[in-house]
Amino acid sequence: MMYSIVGWSGAGCLRATKRMGTMKQFTTTLRSQVDQATEAMTVARQVGHDYEVHLHGARIRDLLDVAARHGIDTTGWVDRTMLDDARLGA
To answer: Which superkingdom (predicted)?
Structure first.
């Protein structure tokens, strides 16, 4: 079984679909998407695009929620302080 992360659904939630592969592959894909969103958030912050920072932060929080629902330890994946600063009005 391979797991893949599927984009935003109706209420901004994510859903995970099972294909061929392993939980390790799912974790690797999830981690890669968190890393990509973190990098995009950093770039948005550097150029002063506050709303994009918020959107990338929301994406990261959603990905971390998916990981938590699957029992994946995300300790060290993201600087939680940086993530807290990504909220609108922060």
So the answer is: Bacteria
The model's pLDDT over 48-82, given as tens digits with 9 standing for 90+, comes to 999 999 999 999 999 999 999 999 999 999 998 88
Handedness of CA 24, 26, 29, 34 (dihedral sign): negative
Say which residues have a Cβ less than 8 Å from residue 53's Cβ, sequence separation at least 6. Answer: 41, 44, 45, 86
H/E segment holding residue 27? helix 23-46
Total-model pTM: 0.72
d(CA 36, CA 7): 14
Contact (CB, 8 A) for 51 and 87: no
